[in-house]
Specification:
By secondary structure, the protein is mostly helical. The chain folds into six domains: 95 residues, no CATH class; 65 residues, Signal transduction histidine kinase, dimerisation/phosphotransfer (DHp) domain (Helix Hairpins); 164 residues, Histidine kinase-like ATPase, C-terminal domain (Heat Shock Protein 90, 2-Layer Sandwich), CATH 3.30.565; 192 residues, no CATH class; 157 residues, no CATH class; 99 residues, no CATH class. Helix content is 64%, strand content 5%. It contains 32 helices and nine strands. The protein has a five-stranded mixed beta sheet with strand order 3-5-6-8-7. A hairpin with a 7-residue loop joins strand 7 and strand 8. It starts with 15 loop residues before the first helix and ends with a helix. Keywords: ATP-binding, Cell membrane, Hydrolase, Kinase, Magnesium, Manganese, Membrane, Nucleotide-binding, Phosphoprotein, Protein phosphatase, Stress response, Transferase, Transmembrane, Transmembrane helix, Two-component regulatory system, Virulence. It is an enzyme of class 2 (transferase). It comes from Nocardioides furvisabuli. It holds the Pfam family HATPase_c.
């Protein structure tokens, strides 16, 4: 594993303590400067705080990434070494204690790789060496067993000799630990070279190797060498030459002495070795073209180098064939210990040891070492299957840029919807679940929920729509299907700013070679510089072009620039968090698999449910008695008017409906699986749901009566919709229980709530309430002008159309239509459909927003309509 160097701006600092101090100072200074800047520009603390924290965390990640990268690499490399892969190294340019530790770690890894390579090479070499005497002995024993040769002393002696040679090779295995240490003792002695060559030829022939061998070595040539090792060399080179020599040709063995040593050559008439392959054939497992393993010549060179000599192919004298020359110098008198050499070319011993596949914990993503956050978030939020997120970062940056440039700061309008849609699209573009039906449905609902910021002026509808859109969208990104999963989806979004920091650093490739960030920054800087310089020149040269520039680039004050920078940073961070959550969804259903132990005794859950059923029955009975008795009975028994009676307790009934859902959820989880338990559960909870629907109907009826008596308000309309949604949820529980579809209930409840809110926004609540109150005015003559004044600009067209002009002027002159002030109306980015319609309506009756009339001008109107 050759990881790129993990560069860091602090690599030149040689002390880890100093680095940590600088890291703290940089983070604190960044946060303080941003706070001071925001305070000087009168930016809201609610915007300054998250941006300052996010940027401080980003600076910390930037500086700390290179500091801890070597440690993470060491963890990954050590795990790879445990699997048998010693190729990994820690790449860092740090000079502190961590860098020194990395250098020591690399040296240790190199030593371990050498030892492991030598161990495997020895095993392969010994295996190869054992095969030759085993083959010879097996052939001899088969001839003896078949009666081909007589079992005389000579044949038995030859078999014994091969067995003794096997024993000698087994002794070599006992020297494995010494070989791994890189030191081998040579047993040098004076030997007759010709006798050793003849004996080696006989061994090769007895092993079944065909061919003829001509030994041209003087009888009196004596050399000083290790006879066992030299026999290894001769047997391997003679066997190699015999395999390559054509039939009916001779292999010539010659030797001689020189002033500084001695030499031996083996020549054959085969196809020879090409000059470019004369080193490759000595590599372990290098192909020799004749069916060999490729170890023979590697072992021969190993023996030659042990003696301090060389073994290499030379040009053949006749221009064809192969000529192998061994040259050994005169040994030193002290009899040195020779270090085991490494081969000139190495081939990994994949046939001996195959590294196991990496475990999931070895790497985080795309070969990235796991970070401390992986352990912090655990199985709730692992990083799996994601690589570089540069596209997500770029999309989030685009959303932040749109917000900084386009978002209206005077009033909520079309640009708010634009920014919300841009941020959602940026997260959805790379979402892992973007093709799932649930995610698509949630995205559509989220889009519908942010439209009121463009279509309506009621702030409470806009706020509810934005909050609900965020919640629904996040659930779609995480695939939440349970109540805990839905709640954890909302929590995971702000946590993404912390969980995604390592991913953010990898996406930008801030550290290390191959970084794209400098190129991107340079491109952006030069592009903005060219736009500014040439745009200014042409704007001053051509008045038409200058007018276009004035329309596109508003004049901004210092406070505006700073505020928009903070706003862009906030939207970027929020979008990036949502994008990371979409790209790598948290396992929000981590609690869904936990099985609640059913209660051993049925009465522990059944009796409380039956008690609740009894209370509901008593309440329904009281409601029925009041309905039968009518107004007279209610006024006589309670002292309240009928309207006050039906209104009293509406909030309590809504709370009781919500608690019913909780009771059903808890009881269904604690009930046992026995058939009797299931029957009691369906009966008791089914009765409770049926009674709850009667309570919902009673509450809605009561609110209707109260609204007919005292008028309509947006709050009463909202609680009507909320109570109706709770009734739908209860009905869904009954249907799901009957059909066994309980796992779909949380999603049905979430989607139906979003649909209910979309429906509420679709009827334009403020305009609807104003219209109903004006209908009530026509039938009863009662109208609460003060309440009409509290409505938003959504109600203005209805007021103008349904009230006399003089009354409408008085209502709209004192109506706090702050969103209709000239600054908001002149800001194209704050355009809103309801405000645009309200502006047209008030102008039709001659009202100028922001200039209320004197109080005495509308005094008669207030007296006439006062209730």
């Amino acid at each position: 594993m050759n990881a790129p160097p993990a560069g860091s701006p602090l690599d030149a600092v040689s002390s880890l303590k100093t680095k940590l101090g600088l890291l703290v100072v940089a983070s604190v200074v960044t946060a303080v400067l941003l706070t001071l800047l925001g305070s000087a520009a009168d930016v809201s603390p609610l915007l300054v705080l998250p941006v300052s924290v996010a940027l401080a965390l980003g600076v910390t990640q930037l500086l700390a990434a290179g500091m801890v990268a070597p440690l993470r690499q060491m963890t990954t490399v050590s795990r790879a070494m445990a699997r048998g892969d010693y190729s990994g190294r820690v790449r860092t340019s740090a000079t502190d204690e961590v860098g020194q530790l990395a250098a020591a770690f690399n040296r240790m890894a190199e030593d371990l790789a050498t030892v492991d390579r030598e161990r495997r090479d020895l095993i392969a070499t010994v295996s190869h060496e054992l095969r030759t005497p085993l083959t010879a002995m097996t052939a001899l024993l088969e001839n003896l067993a078949d009666g081909v040769v007589p079992p005389d002393t000579a044949q038995l002696g030859a078999a014994l000799e091969q067995a003794q040679r096997l024993g000698s090779l087994v002794d070599d295995l006992l020297q494995l630990s010494r070989l791994e240490a890189g030191v081998v003792d040579l047993d040098r002695r004076e030997i007759h070279l010709r006798a050793l060559v003849v004996d080696s030829v006989a061994q090769v022939v007895s092993a079944g190797r065909p061919g003829r061998y001509d030994v041209e070595v003087a009888d009196d040539l004596r050399v000083r060498a290790d006879p066992a090792r030299l026999r290894q060399l001769l047997v391997n080179v003679l066997d190699n030459a015999g395999r390559h020599a054509p039939p009916d040709t001779h292999v010539r063995v010659s030797a001689g002495a020189v002033a500084d040593g001695w030499w031996l050559e083996v020549t054959d008439s085969g196809r020879g070795v090409a000059p470019e392959d004369r080193e490759r054939v000595f590599a372990r497992f290098g192909t020799d073209g004749a069916g060999g393993t490729g170890l023979g010549l590697a072992v021969a060179r190993w023996v030659a180098e042990l003696h301090g000599g060389t073994l290499r192919f030379l040009d053949p004298p006749a221009g064809r064939g192969a000529r192998l020359r061994l040259a050994v110098p005169t040994p030193l008198p002290a009899g040195p210990r020779w270090t085991t050499p490494t081969t000139t070319q190495e081939t990994p011993m994949t046939a001996t040891t195959r590294p196991a596949p990496p475990s999931p914990d070895d790497l985080a993503v795309g070969g990235t070492p796991p970070s401390g956050l992986d352990q912090l978030f655990g199985r709730f939020w692992p990083e799996s299957g994601i690589g570089s997120g540069l596209a997500t970062v770029a999309a989030a940056a685009a959303a932040g840029l749109v917000a900084g440039l386009a978002l209206s700061l005077t009033a909520v309008g079309v640009t708010w919807t634009l920014v919300a849609v841009t941020s959602g699209a940026a997260a959805l573009a790379t979402a892992r679940r973007r093709r799932e039906t649930w995610t698509v449905l949630c995205s559509v609902l989220a889009l519908l929920l942010v439209l009121p910021m463009t279509l309506l002026d009621a702030w409470w509808v806009q706020a509810l729509g934005l909050i609900s859109a965020t919640a629904v969208f996040l659930c779609g990104m995480t695939g939440a299907r349970t109540v805990p999963g839905i709640l954890l989806s909302g929590i995971a979004w702000p946590l993404a700013s912390l969980r995604g920091l390592p991913w953010f650093g990898r996406s930008l490739r801030i550290a290390g070679t191959g970084s794209r960030t400098p190129a991107l920054v340079r491109t952006a800087v030069w592009s903005l510089l060219g736009l500014g310089v040439f745009g200014t020149i042409f704007a001053s040269a051509n008045p038409v072009f200058g007018s276009w520039v004035d329309q596109l680039v508003p004049t901004l004050s210092f406070n505006d620039v700073v505020g928009r920078l903070f706003l862009a940073g906030f939207v970027f961070a929020a979008t990036l968090g949502a994008g990371y959550l979409a790209l790598n969804p948290a396992r929000v259903e981590v609690l869904a698999d936990r099985r609640v132990t059913p209660l051993a005794n049925r009465f522990e859950w059944l009796v409380p449910v039956l008690v609740v059923d009894a209370v509901f029955v008593a309440f329904i009975a009281a409601q029925a008695r009041a309905l039968i008795g009518g107004r007279a009975y209610i006024e006589a028994s309670t002292g309240l008017t009928y309207a006050d009676y039906v209104h009293q307790g509406f909030g309590q009934l809504t709370l009781a409906t919500a608690l019913t859902v909780l009771v059903v959820w808890v009881a269904s989880r604690r009930a046992g699986e026995a058939p009797a338990d299931r029957r009691w559960m369906f009966a008791s909870l089914g009765l409770l749901c049926a009674l709850t629907l009667l309570v919902v109907a009673s509450a809605l009826r009561g609110m209707g009566v109260y609204q007919d008596a005292y008028g309509f308000t947006t709050l009463r309309l909202f609680v009507d919709v909320f109570e109706g949604w709770l009734g739908f949820v209860v009905l869904s529980i009954m249907v799901a229980g009957a059909l066994g579809l309980g796992r779909w209930l949380p999603r049905v409840a979430l989607a139906s709530g979003a649909v209910a809110l979309v429906g509420l926004a679709a009827i334009n609540p403020d305009a609807w309430v104003a219209g109903r109150n004006l209908d009530r005015y026509k039938s009863t003559g009662a109208l609460d002008l003060y309440y009409l004044q509290s409505l938003s600009a959504d109600a203005a067209p209805v007021i103008v159309e349904r009230l006399p002009a003089e009354v409408a002027r008085c209502v709209l002159r004192t109506l706090p239509l702050s969103s209709l002030d000239p600054e908001a109306l002149d800001d194209v980015r704050a355009w809103n459909l309801s405000r645009s319609r309200a502006q047209d309506a008030v102008r039709r009756i001659g009202v100028l927003p922001g200039f209320p009339a004197p109080e005495d001008e509308c005094a008669d109107v207030w007296n006439r309509f006062a209730e």
